[in-house]
Amino acid sequence: MSARHVLDSYSVLAFLENEPGAEKVAELIKHARDKERPLLLSAVNWGEVYYIACRTAGKGAAEETMRTLDTLPIEVAPADREITRIAAEFKADKKMSYADCFAAALAKREKAELVTGDKEFKEVDGEIKIQWL
Predict the structure, then answer these.
(1) pLDDT tens digits, residue range 8-31?
(2) Which pLDDT score, from 0 to 100, does residue 3 have?
(3) How many domains does the chain have?
(4) CB contact set of 108 (below 8 Å; sequence gap of 6+)
(5) Is residue 65 pLDDT above 80, yes or no?
(6) Residues 6+ apart with CB under 8 A from 90
(7) Any bridge partners for residue 129, and if so which?
(8) What is the CATH number of the domain that holds 65?
């Protein structure tokens, strides 16, 4: 388990809501904490988790969710020009949401393994490494 890992909103929400795949994400979080090597999450996917939490539970609960997320060994990576270019290239060629393209772009740039259960990522399977939940 030495490869770097990128989480998408699917994997974060699975963990936070104790849905299928939560145990695997919990294992990755523990490993990241033990090895002092944080998991990665695109700022765009961070925003996706926030807006989904706002929609489902309200702004107050969403703020609490994000405070919980802040306690985890997860580094929020900015959507800089390079990541945005890679995401735009994925979006131009693949049938994926733009937010998902940012997770894939971060995994590609960092040569990391994307952790997800979102079948939309089958579009980039082979171009990036994917650990399916």
Answers:
(1) 999 999 999 999 999 999 999 999
(2) 79
(3) 1
(4) 86, 127, 128
(5) yes
(6) 96, 101, 104, 105, 123, 124
(7) 113
(8) 3.40.50.1010
